[in-house]
Amino acid sequence: MNPIKNFIQNFRSKDIPAVLVVGMDDETHGIGFEGMIPWREKDDMKFFKDTTVGKVRFDGNYNTIVCGGNTYVSFGEKNLPNRHLIVVSKTMYDKYKPELSRRVIQTDSCIVDYDPKSRLYTAYIKDINSVSLAFRAIEVESRYYYGTLFVIGGSMIYDEFMKGKVRNVYIKTAFVTHIVFNDTVANSLKDKSRDVPVFIKQYGHKYDTFFSYFMLTVKNRFKIVKRIPLGKHYITRHEFNMFASKRLQDYTQYKI
To answer: When you count CB atoms within 10 A of the terminal residue's CB, does the N or C end of the chain come out lower?
Structure first.
């Protein structure tokens, strides 16, 4: 038996805890517009990088992020530095399937590729339920079993995880950044135009994707752990942990 499949099969009953990272408009819960992040905040970007990278002990000991195809395109279709990547997109799977020369595993729904220069793994999967397969494969190949899985969007990816529909993976912690762009804040920043995010200057309050499960799921199934100060009065961030008694679903075992 393939050693990777054997390893994953032995661990199939062990659910993978994941961390959700999202930034949203505090009022509308908007998170994106035409494939763009709705703001460019250095503090927010630094927090995202520091959180998802974590502590790198040595090359190859990296965390893994999972995102959709549109988010991957916004990265320039490449890995972020010092982070393995799982892309949930049939389009990207079909696009890269014939091009990957260093693939370390391939199934009907998952391809994992390796870049020796960056020492990073990239997995392309057609089905979101293959996230656990891709993550375990990256663990085995990198020989690093202590990495964290981060869910970073977009909207459909958030929805699937928050509904508890991703097999053998559950959200344990959520970092939710609230950006307050109401008229009161806008007026208070008129004399400090350099502090107003460029996106809002150009586009106003326009969104076409939303984090729709914040009120229904996060507030009902998670408890607030702490408020993380960011130094700007129109941005707040909270860390939520799941209540131990409120799992999103009963996760079913499956065979590879």
So the answer is: N
Say if residues 155 and 32 touch (Cβ distance below 8 Å): yes
Pairing of strands 83-88, 63-68: parallel
CATH number of the domain located at residue range(s) 3-242 in this protein: 3.40.430.10
Q: Which two three-digit tokens encode residue 30?
A: 């908007």
- Per-residue pLDDT, 10: 54
What are the tokens at 175?
């970092």
3-state helix, strand, coil split of the chain in percent (to 5) is 30, 30, 40
Residue that the structure tokens 């409120």 belong to: 246
The domain locations on the chain are 3-242
Neighbours of 24 (CB within 10 A): 22
What torsion, rounded to 10 degrees, do the Cα atoms 213, 165, 78, 174 define?
40
Residue 194: pLDDT band (50, 70, 90) is: very low
As a residue count, the chain comes to 256
Q: Is the pTM of this model over 0.90?
A: no
